[in-house]
Amino acid sequence: RGLAFDETDALGRRRGAWTRAFWRWAESCRPSDPAAAAAFDHYVACVRCAESDKRALEKRALAEARADRWRGAVEALSCIKGIDAVTAFCLATEAGCFSRFPTAGAYASRIGLAPSERSSGEKEAKGGITKTGNSASRRALVEAAWHFKSRSPKPKCIW
Q: Alphabetically, which GO biological process terms does the record hold (predicted)?
């Protein structure tokens, strides 16, 4: 049950999420049935409210990130591709002080990005990331990695 909408434009390109053009397109998909239209309007209002809340929280986080306590870490982390000031602030506040981690691997282990391993004797079994530890930092870094990947140019074939 429900409706499925094509999220591509007339030329077959994927539509951007939450842009003005997207909202015009979404409004063009408004159902004619009154009950479905009421549900549609409710969901649109929820998304618009969440967008507004997100903007307000990001503005507050950016103001806090400029404080002397966080400025150095935020500026350093923001130099990494895919990490903006809000993500850097999240990582800095969740870590507290990065100097308490002797290596990058120790930090990765703390936030659950280290690979799992189930080994016994001569048998080695490597697995995916452990997903233990600080989920906010892990989520922020995974999101930054996806952002970096989606914004990076496609590699060119050299042969």
A: DNA transposition
